[in-house]
Structure formats: structure tokens, C-alpha cells
């Protein structure tokens, strides 16, 4: 999961601790870290040091100092076993052969608080389009009338998930799930093992091999998914990572849609069966024939969300 060996990782208690990596001193606090690089040879240009995306907080002729929060500098957070770990890289970039470029791992790991979990119900994310939009995604009970009473699901049972967007003064928008994957970590890393649920710009690929389906809409701003519990991550904590999109209801195309596979019928478009040809690309590559930019805010906005942890169990085992 990490670019460096576990032997180089240092596991720390919640109390601040000090680690020395050759010329680097690492002081891990509960919410922040101090990294000090002392240049004994006085050859390196200390202004060229970076901690992730951060410049030094201060530097002199012999020291570069970073005093930063874990929410800054692109720190990576990983929950593993009994530890909550933050990692980053201290890098030095130079074209001078006398002081070549190098990278040092920066790792702070704490005993995982027993009551620490990412938000289970209704994690809220906000973004601004033409007005203010608030996105929601949550585990629901069987009839979608309220939050789930349990986050444990038997293999083969259905996991009800509802996503929505509160539109307030915004023009009416259609809520879509562009992509969803399951993982066993709350943070996705480049080498994370994932189970694809929705892919290819709104295709419920899991429905190809299961009973998963989108439920009929009651509101354009809501999308209900009945996801059949899978074997991936069986018995472990599972997190569902999704990209939610609020889109122009009149702007559906091959890249903005909600499609699911119906046995004996093939791919169907949730919002208008007559236009199910938009789903024909679900078995290949869905590319738009029109040029639209979601980041521009002209037709919609998007937001990433993480739902979990939930646990899938095999009651027959």
C-alpha cells in the first residue's frame, strides 16, 4: 500500500514522539507534524525542500523547517489494523550534481481511537454551482424511509443506498452517480484493490452479474441504488467511494446517465427507457459526442463522497 517498506515506518502512540532519519527530525503531534532537516554539509539549497505540496515554513542556511497540519500538504491518511497513519514525502529537487535530488518518507502513526470512524450516515459535502448545492449519500433501511439501523449486511442481501442533492435556489438538476467503487480503506491509494460498482460514466456494472439495480425515481434530485452484497472485502470494513454529479435534466448523453443491466433485456436507461441507446456503450467505452465541461459549472457540478464503513458477512460460513 505504501511506496516505502514497513520496516521504515514508525508506529507512535497518540502522545507526540520524536524520530531522527539521518539529517531529518520528525515530531508527530496529535493533529500536526514538525519536520526539520539539518544540512550538515551546507551544499543543499534548503528553499528547494518540499513536504508533499508545501514549501518550508521557515529555513536558514542550515535548516529547513515544516510545521503543518495533517489536513495540509496532501498528507495521505490510511486506517490499517489498530493504527491511524498519515504519510507524506519530504523531497529535495535539484539539478546540481553536488547535491542530487532525493526523497525521504515522513510517517506518523497513532493508536487508532476505538470510537474513530469516518461518518457512517449522511456525510455532507458542499460545492457551489449556480447557487449553493449540498450533496448527501447514506445507507438506508429496506424501504428507503430512513437511515439503516445496521451497517452489517449478509452476502447476497441488498444494501440500500440513497444519494441526493439539496438544490435550494439552484435551477432543477438531475442527481447521477458517475462512478462508485468498493475498497477496504477510507482513502483510495494508487495501488488500492477496488471492486467496481458503477463505472464508464454511470453504468451499474455490478448489475451484469448480480441483482443490483437503480430504483425508480420519485425526485430528480434523488437516486436510489439497491446494491447486492458482494464477496469483495468479506468480513472486513468496506468503504464505498462515489462521484456524485448534479446535471442538467435535459442534457443526458453517453457520459451523463444512469444505466443498469436487466436480464433478458440488456442495458436500460433509468430516466427514460426510450433513450436506452445511450447505454449501448456500457460494454465498451462511453465517450461524449458533444464537448461539455462539468467543471465549468454550465451544466452541472460534481462531488466525491465516501460511505462506510460497512461489513458484509457470509452467514453460511
List the helices and strands and how they pair.
Blueprint: E1 17-21, E2 24-28, E3 32-38, E4 49-51, E5 58-59, E6 63-69, E7 76-80, E8 83-92, E9 102-111, E10 124-129, E11 131-139, E12 152-154, E13 158-166, E14 174-183, E15 194-198, E16 203-204, E17 213-214, E18 222-228, E19 237-247, E20 259-262, E21 266-269, E22 300-313
Parallel strand pairs: 12-22, 16-20
Antiparallel strand pairs: 1-2, 2-3, 3-6, 4-8, 5-6, 7-8, 8-9, 10-11, 11-13, 13-18, 14-15, 14-19, 17-18, 19-22, 20-21
Could you walk me through the main structural features you see in this protein, from its secondary elements to its overall organization?
With 317 residues, this protein is mostly beta strands. The protein folds into two domains: 6-111, Immunoglobulin-like; 124-313, Immunoglobulin-like. The chain contains no helices and 22 strands. The chain has strands at residues 17-21, 24-28, 32-38, 49-51, 58-59, 63-69, 76-80, 83-92, 102-111, 124-129, 131-139, 152-154, 158-166, 174-183, 194-198, 203-204, 213-214, 222-228, 237-247, 259-262, 266-269, 300-313. The protein has a five-stranded antiparallel sheet with strand order 1-2-3-6-5, with no helix packed on it. A hairpin with a 7-residue loop joins strand 17 and strand 18 (222-228).
